[in-house]
Amino acid sequence: MPLIELTTPFSEEAISQLKVGDVVTISGYIYTGRDAVLPKIIKAADEGRLAEMGIDLQGSVIFHTAVSPAGVGPTSSNKVEIESSLEPLSRHGVKMHLGKGAISKPTIEALKKYNAVFAVIPPVTALLESQTIEREVVAFSELGMEAMNHLKVVKYQAIIGAAKGRSIYD
After folding, report:
1. How high is the pLDDT of residue 126?
2. pTM, full prediction
3. Beta-strand (E) ranges in the chain?
4. For labelling, which of 33, 69, 135, 158 has a CA lying 20 to 30 Å from the CA of 145?
C-alpha cells in the first residue's frame, strides 16, 4: 500500500479521499492538545476567540500529546476529555485528530459528519522528536507540558483509524 503524503492545512478534498487503513505522512504545522487544554480550545472557538490567540483550526491537525523535552508521543484518544473534543473541534475546522486507541461509534459518525478523520500514530517518541523541527506554545502556557503547542513536522506517519463512518477497530 503506497504512502499518502499530506501537507497541512488539509483541503476538504484531500480528507475525503482517505480510507480506513491508509498510511499517511503528515508534514507542515500541527497543533497539540490533550485532557487539560482541549476543553479550553473548544470554549475559545465557541466564543470566537481563536483568531486573537493566533490559532487557525481550518484544515488543521490536532495531535493528542503533551510536549516535553523528551519529545512527543500519542496519548489515549478515548479518554473522555479527549474523545468528547473530536466532534466540536471537527465542527471548528480540524480535519485530522492524531492519537492512539479505539474511539466510539458515535465519535466515528461525528467525524464523518464533518469530513474529518482519526489517525492512529505509533508510540515512537524518539522518532517523532526527530521529525519535529519547530515548536511554540500558542495557548495556555500555565498548563506546562499540556499547553497547546504549534509544531512544524516532517513526514509524521500515521494510519487512518476512522473515516466515512468506519473504524479499523470494527
Report:
1. 63
2. 0.79
3. 3-7, 23-32, 60-63, 67-68, 71-72, 94-99, 117-120, 132-139, 148-163, 166-167
4. 158
